[in-house]
Amino acid sequence: xxxxxxxxxxxxxxxxxxxxxxxxxxxxxxxxxxxxxxxxxxxxxxxxxxxxxxxxxxxxxxxxxxxxxxxxxxxxxxxxxxxxxxxxxxxxxxxxxxxxxxxxxxxxxxxxxxxxxxxxxxxxxxxxxxxxxxxxxxxxxxxxxxxxxxxxxxxxxxxxxxxxxxxxxxxxxxxxxxxxxxxxxxxxxxxxxxxxxxxxxxxxxxxxxxxxxxxxxxxxxxxxxxxxxxxxxxxxxxxxxxxxxxxxxxxxxxxxxxxxxxxxxxxxxxxxxxxxxxxxxxxxxxxxxxxxxxxxxxxxxxxxxxxxxxxxxxxxxxxxxxxxxxxxxxxxxxxxxxxxxxxxxxxxxxxxxxxxxxxxxxxxxxxxxxxxxxxxxxxxxxxxxxxxxxxxxxxxxxxxxxxxxxxxxxxxxxxxxxxxxxxxxxxxxxxxxxx
Length: 435
Ligand SMILES: NC(=O)C1=CN([C@@H]2O[C@H](COP(=O)(O)OP(=O)(O)OC[C@H]3O[C@@H](n4cnc5c(N)ncnc54)[C@H](O)[C@@H]3O)[C@@H](O)[C@H]2O)C=CC1
Ligand SMILES: O=C(O)[C@H]1O[C@H](OP(=O)(O)OP(=O)(O)OC[C@H]2O[C@@H](n3ccc(=O)[nH]c3=O)[C@H](O)[C@@H]2O)[C@H](O)[C@@H](O)[C@@H]1O
Hints:
This protein is α/β, with parallel strands linked by helices.
């Protein structure tokens, strides 16, 4: 099948390389020339396991990138993989989607055969038909249903395991009102849908849009619940990890997303939960549970710094002023250099508010933080960061931190926000955030 992908970021590049791998003819339409050149040179514009080799294999053969929207006319299907960021008031900002749909519509105006447009970006119910569809109609000069078809196909991949998640998903969700559109997507995804472990869910467009938000809201809520239970366990002097491991043996609950600690960050959970809350309020529903999910998450970095302060300065004399604190980990989770809405940055902000000096280390993410944090010292290794520190915080559970001996610290005080594997016997104080 001939497929165009508009937007070549984390999702668009992964989808393009994987669809090329499944044998389709794929073109990426992207406004950033550097990304276009990188893909055409057979390289990956982002760091994802398994991506580089797929692009190297298919670039110049059945995968290419261009800045020219006219390329969509050589294809039967276009996927919109554009950003859907959070506006200042938390609502969904659709400006980029609208601009992309406008360019796509103009290009399709000169096409004389049928075309299917699939929204893959995360958008609230109604957006695909009422916003993207209308913009397309206005600029393509064709009505939806009259040679121009619409579908919504949300993406559930995680950063760090994007290629594997795309090729081996638990489910493929297709929202469409037209049977031909559904048949086209069944054909496109045929090798994936043949897998025993992949379910196909066919719905109307509105349900497909909401399934994505419900999925992320559920996962974020699970982590906040686990954090609340962890905070309560700690107050009782119980080990939350032992408690939650036992709870996770119940099939109805499952053992996944049971790690309590600093909470959730990243480019998706925060913006998607915010958009769903704002959207619900627009529909005149008060999302009180989701409000609490965010409140629990927001409180964890401050709770961690409170614990640290207690150990570093001694109870009754709480202050971090003038102390040197090592922050281990900057990315929002291990396996990625993405620092968007990382809890580590909230920890650093709180430490700064309390006049501590921060020395930070991350195996891959330092360059994404450096310019925004001119007063932070960046170390080349975890051991260097710990040298002379009055206390340390574990903010991201990179596996290499399990090997640390915490030698060279002025005080061997470690407050762990992620439960790494620490040998407590050599430390002056070790405390977990939720256990
Ligand atoms: N990153 C992730 O793990 C996941 C993201 N999503 C959703 O997928 C959507 C895309 O997210 P990402 O790929 O992370 O975004 P991204 O920011 O990594 O990539 C978007 C790309 O679109 C390009 N672009 C912007 N305007 C354009 C235009 N008018 N025409 C052509 N290209 C344009 C940008 O230059 C950028 O390369 C969002 O709605 C997001 O919520 C869904 C599942 C997973
Ligand atoms: O919509 C998206 O973009 C994606 O958002 C998440 O993927 P991702 O943000 O890559 O990362 P996750 O592995 O889900 O972790 C999110 C955050 O939750 C935290 N987390 C996760 C699990 C856990 O048990 N505890 C916990 O604190 C992580 O540290 C991280 O900060 C979802 O897992 C994907 O299905 C979805 O497609």
